[in-house]
UniProtKB/TrEMBL annotation, chain A:
Membrane topology designation: Multi-pass membrane protein
Transmembrane segments: 6-31, 239-263
Localization: Cell membrane
CDD domains listed in its UniProt record: EAL
SMART domains attached to this UniProt entry: EAL (SM00052)
Name used for this protein in its record: cyclic-guanylate-specific phosphodiesterase
Enzyme Commission number(s): 3.1.4.52
Keywords of this entry: c-di-GMP, Cell membrane, Hydrolase, Membrane, Transmembrane, Transmembrane helix
Species whose genome carries this gene: Wenzhouxiangella limi
Molecular function, one GO term: cyclic-guanylate-specific phosphodiesterase activity
Catalytic reaction equation(s): 3',3'-c-di-GMP + H2O = 5'-phosphoguanylyl(3'->5')guanosine + H(+)
Entries under PANTHER family matching the protein: CYCLIC DI-GMP PHOSPHODIESTERASE PDEB-RELATED, CYCLIC DI-GMP PHOSPHODIESTERASE PDEF
A single GO cellular-component term on record: plasma membrane
Domain of life of the native organism: Bacteria
Length: 519, 236
């Protein structure tokens, strides 16, 4: 009943997870990769810019110190030539001057006048170095100059030349030294101050741009703020996104494929089973049950075999649980029963004394219709209920008085009731006593242990004793050797089955085996 | 330069004054228990230039300032900020490692010599260490000429007020004299003596009194009074 709905739910859930999980993972990976890659690039760029800026400042200081230390005759031709050569050898230097107090006596370069004497210094260091960061007060022409004075010499630096636009890859960049903006490209742009920004990369959605701040601490604290439009940022990483996205899609497809394959297999197996039951492709096979002492065949356990039209055999270990899960248990049991009854009609007279053990599923006992259908079929074929023993697993016994009632009814009709696979499930002695039973089948694992002397071998004796106490007949399952048979005979176990006698046989095979035995 | 004067060069100066001081200490043995600075001043500074013999009043300082801002060494108002920045940088470079207190103000720099560093107790004679420091300061002031230098002496309140007054004047004069000897024009120099009238710390503790015994050099920027000239056109 609930099975198709469950399947549908499972399909939807698996589908949703199948898409959402890899897609989320994909997005996360792409974003991480992109941000990491961009931060690496920006760090490299920032370090380069910082190095250039720092080099210019350190070089300026060193040159001023060098000029102060030389005993020039102030403003002599030699002095002026030196200043000029030093200025010419540095692209970013606009002027070098010689000063006494606040008077510029001479110098090299094109900048002169008040622009070189701004009213307030940005920094005065204990070393005696004074610096004026670029500002309106230091603007000569269109350029806000960076000024540095040490002793009697000063230098004017064009900060635009500290940034090579070619290395920016379209980004807008500002370099801050000691918390003050030193250089920017393009110069006119206004940049957010670094102390307002988090370290690293972040997406400024309001302005549709990607902003980053990288701090480089070398001789001076230098910070680089880079701004790029989101489109540029996206353009750069489109290829990466496509590549990672491709891998992600493959993963998603793979995952969905797996889910689909599993589900379709389950669903198709279920519908195939339904068709196999309806089409009579579930055949009854027989494992002989032998009276141990005499070796006489007294019956057989009836088992289902599913052979598809193309010859593929599907194991009962797969289709029996599947049938129960799909609510097909009773139909499976009845289908095997019908097959059995057909076979029985064809078998020779002596065989008609034998008892056939039919396995019931839990659903058989749970449905009121089963018992009736069973009776109808037996009547139809003229088979006495005494010839059909019903095997019930321990698990089925657990349930309620209703089940107990049905088992009692079946037994009253003449069926003998066997408890199957005893010792492996829910061996509750209380239930054993509550149900009216005829036969106890000892599970193969206990019989196996007779050879290996494993711990469980000590369990088989109490089982035998229990069966005796409850007045139950015993059938040992899975006998595979003469020694096992011998041991069981010595303990008066009545019957047994197993490869030692015969595997499960088809209709004709069973007939042949039986006739051979009877001879 | 001047700041490169070595300890060896100053040694004879020190010993010259050490011997008479010891002699006097020996002669006035009964006075040994009293603080030695109660001794009368050992020397008076040579009186070469009139302006250093005059103890200036507030009015004198104003008059001199008024005269100098008209002079050629005063700076234009636009250059005042720049001058003070580069002046401060120069003072920092040359004097920040000496341990004397330097107070950088908007239009002036106040340098405070503690007396225990600058003078023998009760004496107006500069120690060699003080002399070296003043040499270094003089080198700066020779370049930064747009400054008026007001040297004022101060004492604590222990002892005779007249004595303290005289001692403060003589110590101020010694410093000013040394600056003049190092090439600073007497026109830029003014001396004042305040005795114990202007304490900067509590006279009841020894550390407070030590802080009050001092010579201050107020280096005042001389800014030209007249309206600024139009900015000279920039050469292209």
């Amino acid at each position: 009943m609930g099975s198709p709905r469950n399947a549908l739910l499972f399909v939807s859930l698996a589908g949703a997870i199948g898409v959402a999980l890899p897609a989320t993972l994909l997005l996360w990976v792409i974003w991480q990769q992109t941000v990491m890659a961009e931060e690496q690039r920006l760090t490299k760029l920032s370090e380069d810019l910082a190095a250039q800026t720092e080099h210019a400042i350190v070089d300026a200081r060193a040159l001023l110190e060098e000029l102060n230390s030389q005993a020039f005759e102030p403003c002599s031709p030699h002095h002026l030539l030196t200043l000029q050569n030093e200025a010419l050898s540095r692209v970013h230097v606009r002027a070098i001057g010689y000063w006494e107090a606040a008077n510029r006596l001479c110098g090299a370069g094109l900048v002169q006048g008040q622009r070189l004497t701004p009213a307030r210094a940005s920094r005065i260091y204990d070393s005696g170095v004074i610096a004026w960061w670029p500002s309106a007060a230091t603007t000569a022409g269109d350029v806000a100059l960076f000024l540095m004075r040490f002793g009697n010499h000063d230098m004017a630096i064009d900060p635009r030349l500290l940034i090579t636009p070619g290395q920016l890859e379209g980004k807008q960049v500002a370099v801050w030294v000691e918390g003050m903006q030193m250089a920017a490209y393009p110069e006119a742009s206004v940049f957010p101050a670094p102390d307002e920004l988090p370290e690293g990369l972040f997406v400024d959605r309001a302005n549709n741009r990607v902003v980053s701040r990288v701090s480089v601490d070398s001789l001076f604290p230098i910070e680089v703020v880079a701004v790029q439009s989101f489109e540029d940022f996206w353009d750069r990483y489109r290829m990466l996104v496509i590549a990672v996205g491709g891998i992600g899609l493959v993963l998603i497809t793979l995952w969905l494929g797996l889910v689909w394959r599993y589900l379709s297999r389950q669903l198709s197996l279920e519908s195939s089973l339904r068709a196999a039951i309806d089409g009579g492709r579930i055949h009854a096979v027989y494992q002989p049950i032998v009276e141990l002492r005499s070796g006489r065949c007294v019956g057989a356990e009836v088992l289902g075999r599913w052979t598809e039209k193309n010859g593929t055999a599907i194991s009962p270990e797969i289709f029996v649980p599947l049938a129960e899960k799909a609510g097909l248990g009773t139909r499976l049991t009845l289908s095997i029963l019908e097959n059995l009854l057909q076979h029985m009609a064809n078998w020779p007279e002596p065989e008609k004394e034998m008892v056939y053990h039919l396995n019931l599923t839990e659903q058989d006992l749970a449905q009121p219709g089963f018992s009736r259908r069973l009776g109808e079929l037996l009547d139809e074929h003229g088979v006495a209920p005494e010839r059909i023993a019903l095997e019930i697993t321990e698990r089925a016994l657990l349930d309620s008085d209703v089940i107990r009632q049905r088992v009692a009814e079946l037994r009253d009709k003449g069926h003998s009731i066997a408890i199957d696979d005893f010792g492996t499930g829910y061996s509750s002695l209380a239930y054993l006593q509550k149900f009216e039973l005829d036969t106890l089948k000892i599970d193969k694992t206990f019989v196996d242990s007779l050879q290996t002397e494993a711990v469980t071998s000590s369990v088989i004796r109490p089982i035998i004793d229990l069966a005796r106490a409850l007045d139950l007949e015993i059938i040992a399952e899975g006998i595979e050797s003469g020694e096992q048979m011998q041991w069981l005979v010595e303990r008066d176990v009545e019957c047994g089955q197993g490869y030692w006698y015969s595997p499960a046989l088809g209709e004709s095979g069973f007939k042949a085996w039986y006739l051979d035995k009877a001879r | 330069m001047v700041s490169g004067q070595s300890a060896l060069n100053t040694w004879p100066t020190a010993s010259r004054w050490l011997i008479p001081a010891l002699l006097i200490a020996a002669l006035t043995a009964c006075a040994v228990l009293e603080p030695p600075r109660r001794e009368p001043p050992q020397t008076t500074a040579p009186e070469r230039i009139d302006s250093l013999t005059v103890i200036a009043s507030e009015a004198d300082v104003a008059t001199r300032r008024g005269a100098l801002v008209e002079g050629e060494n005063a700076v234009d108002a636009e250059a005042a900020g720049y001058f003070m920045d580069v002046f401060q940088a120069r003072v920092r470079r040359d004097l920040s490692d000496t341990g004397i207190a330097i107070d950088y103000r908007e239009r002036s720099v106040l340098i405070t010599f503690p007396s225990q560093m600058g003078f023998e107790s009760g004496s107006a004679q500069l120690t060699s260490e003080a002399a070296r420091l003043i040499d270094r300061l003089a080198a700066v002031l020779r370049e930064y000429r747009a400054t008026l230098i007001v040297v004022s002496g101060h004492t604590d309140n222990v002892g005779d007020p007249d004595f303290n007054q005289r001692l403060s004047e003589q110590r101020a004069r010694s410093v000013a004299q040394h600056l003049q000897d190092s090439g600073i024009s007497h026109v830029r120099l003014l001396i004042r003596g305040f005795g114990s009238d202007r304490p900067v710390a509590d006279n009841t503790s020894e550390t407070g009194r030590a802080r009050n015994r001092r010579v201050e050099l107020m280096l005042e920027l001389l800014v030209r009074d007249r309206p600024s000239q139009p900015e000279e056109p920039e050469n292209a």
